[in-house]
Design brief:
The chain has 122 residues and is mainly alpha-helical. The protein is 76% helix and 0% strand.
Length: 122
């Protein structure tokens, strides 16, 4: 990716981080609280199909959870495109200014790893 392309992707990452923070606020989720974030990750991963259905039927709480999950996945894709597929080996440095996303991503990976120890987390 060109230097200009990286600048655009970093800007997109900053915008995504801001939207993730806003979505956490709308959900009442304190991304600094490990327990709350862990419970969010568990709920979303256990109930994603039910949450999606409820969101389509107008449940705003479900919609916000699905949106936050989607934003976290989009940030992962953006970071992969910006920093390369091995950015996870430098997770702390890459996510230095992405604390909301980093907390949510880490909780999701930890939950996935707990469900399937053969599925390696970053």
């Amino acid at each position: 990716m060109t230097m200009f392309g990286n600048d655009i992707m970093m800007h997109d990452g900053n915008e995504l981080e801001l939207q993730i923070e806003r979505t956490c606020i709308a959900l009442g989720l304190d991304f600094h609280d490990d327990y709350q974030v862990r419970m969010f990750a568990r709920d979303v991963l256990q109930n994603i199909d039910r949450l999606r259905k409820a969101a389509r039927e107008g449940d705003m709480q479900a919609r916000i959870k699905v949106e936050l999950y989607g934003l976290a996945m989009l940030m992962h894709k953006t970071n992969s495109a910006t920093f390369g597929s091995n950015y996870l080996s430098q997770f702390a440095k890459v996510t230095e200014h992405q604390s909301a996303w980093a907390a949510i991503a880490q909780a999701l990976w930890n939950e996935l790893e707990a469900r399937n120890p053969d599925n390696m987390a970053p």
